[in-house]
Known about the structure:
Elements: H1 4-23, H2 31-45, H3 66-86, H4 88-108, H5 112-117
Helix pairs in contact: 1-2, 1-3, 3-4
Amino acid sequence: MPSRIEQEKQTVERMVRLYCRKKEGNKQLCPQCEELLGYARIRLSRCPFGENKSTCRQCSIHCYKPEMKERMRKVMRYAGPRMLLYHPVAAIRHLWQEYVHQYLTKRFGVPRQEQHKQ
């Protein structure tokens, strides 16, 4: 079973590829999408929370540069809903992880990431 970070990398790659193929009409990743994907992989590799991370949307640390954050937001806004059609297992896993993080935060008052630091 792939690690949490590897799963996130795969999900991000699927989303970027879906965006580039369907929204931009490219058969292969364009240079801008390839740059964004490379940037996202590096950020995920350096995540200070490691295997205990939540989804990036719920993270307390926003490690993307503003320009890249905006580009990724556009990709996710387009590809997110379509992931249920093209990659349903990855989409459901991602939504489940967000749900669990929200539940733990509401139930115990401390995000899973913060519990790991203590």
